[in-house]
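Minutes, methods subgroup
Present: GH (chair), OT, SY

1. OT presented the first of two proteins processed in the latest run. Sequence and structure tokens recorded below as shown on screen.
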Amino acid sequence: MVELTRPLCCRVLVVDDCRDTTTSMAILLRCWGCDAREANDGPTALKVADAFRPDVVLLDLGMPGMDGCQVARQLRRRADGRPLLVVSVSGYVDEPHVRLALEAGCDHHLAKPVELGELQRLLASCQPEQQEEPTVGEAAPRDE
């Protein structure tokens, strides 16, 4: 696991039809400094997202009723141009499922069980004060 040098301060909505999954993930995210909310179905996820306005949504694909792809499409329509990182989190890891999730509006796909270091890196990438590492050929900014 990546060691946190500072708390992750973002708003995360965890969506999964398994309550144990949403509860345990939300607890972990709060320990990392995130403001986390939970939803256990698609319609509830959309209501919570409208009120909470998350920075990140961790979204199960295989939910009964409104599946994760349908939720992702609706989240994108409702985002009103604001930044929103949508990450599908699923046991479906075959190429057709991942492609469907990305086409529906997910930015990334994580396989269950989630590798925590990878999740931390994704969450850290959406921090507003986070500066990108310089690429080859660019000088790092100097403090003067």
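2. SY then presented the second protein from the same run.
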Amino acid sequence: MALTTPPTRPNRNTQTQAEFSANAETWTEWVADLANELISTSATYLLNVSGSSGDSITVGTGSKTFDIETGLGFVTGMNVVLANSAADYMNGVVDSYNSGTGSITVNFTANTGSGTYSAWVLSLSAVGASNASDITTTSYGTLSGTTIEAQVRELEDDKTLKLNVTSKSSQAQAEAGLNDTQYMTPLTTSQAVSALVADAVFTETFTSSNQTITSGGLLTVAHGLSVNPFMVFFYLVNTTAENGYSIGDKLLVSSNGDDTATARAVSIGWDATNINVRYGSQTVSLFVTVNKSNGNRIALTNANWALVVKAIA
């Protein structure tokens, strides 16, 4: 019985998504058809490979010719076992079988037990070995050079690639991200993402109330955070309209002030408890910026603004 030629195999590396999907569906249908064909073939041939012999045969290795039933499915290259009992048997490979006369020649390569007997059963053996410890490889037998052999070898090549991904990653391995021989599950993926963003997520903030700008003064504000802040900055809030700014306007300004005036600057430091702001000693206008309406350089009046500090951790 001829086996159906396989269709194009699906391959994610060389095919588009549409091609892969179409080929995967066709491949699946072929596998199902192939299974039915193999079952049919087995019913015709493989199940017809058990025979018996009444010839006098001595247990041992070497080539032996004896008679079994005619019309059986034995072919050259098959691994077989000839057994008188569970204690006395021989393993070998069929050299020839005449289905018309029933004469069969087997080259026996291993045996268990001893003696000469005239009641034998011949059947298929997985391999030509005397015990499980001798089994190292399985022959393709009569399938050599056929479509099935080609598919088996191709699948063996794929197996080598797939087995490179050997196991599921642990949480520690997923978070480390240092190997490409393990696969990720939804859980370990989530764990890895959480670990990556943990240091980038701020969980605590502090914003002070409006603070008075005091020339030359030291402002100390307790931030109340559980850890030392990662970042601290300040901004001004307008309390009396001037230079195009309205009450409530917020304004980021430089802490360096203006180098044309003495002590027009602000320094900010912090620790695990407090934020410390040291105002420059310029008495009237500590901060310099531009007019909101026309962009001209202007100096802000200290009394018209309040300072707000913000901490992030």
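Chair's summary of item 2: The helical segments are 17-44, 147-162, 171-176, 186-198.
Next meeting: continue with the remaining queue.
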